[in-house]
User: Fold this.
Amino acid sequence: MRLRVRSVQNQGIPTASMADIAFLLIIFFMVTINFEVDKTQVFLPKTQIRLEIPKKAAYISITESGQIRVSGGEEISVPVHPEDVLSFAADVVARDPQKAFVLKADKSVPYRYVDGVIDSLKQAKAEVIYLLSEQETIDSRAEEG
Assistant:
């Protein structure tokens, strides 16, 4: 009786499911990532406490040099002329009347610029306006305590 020699299989790590895992990780990160729509660098004034702002709020930023940048909350902020803030705000309010606006102004900006933007928001019938400041939020203090 002749015995057959069995072939010896090389031992290795099974990599067939690695592509599946990689695609699942890519999908997970794509779903969970949050993009910051307003990346304007400003030094905010200090306050005692502030409220948490909504995630999809419209942003209006005023830099130290007086440049105004706007974002509807979905897209990256773009520079505009001060006269165009009213039309931007009116467009946003027309699409979503309950949309919150966040005004982010550098602490060295003269108040007349901030006041002009607030007046434009009032004329556009914006109902909720947040003035951003540099401080911890009420919500984060409640979580710690």
Observations:
- The longest strand covers residues 100-105.
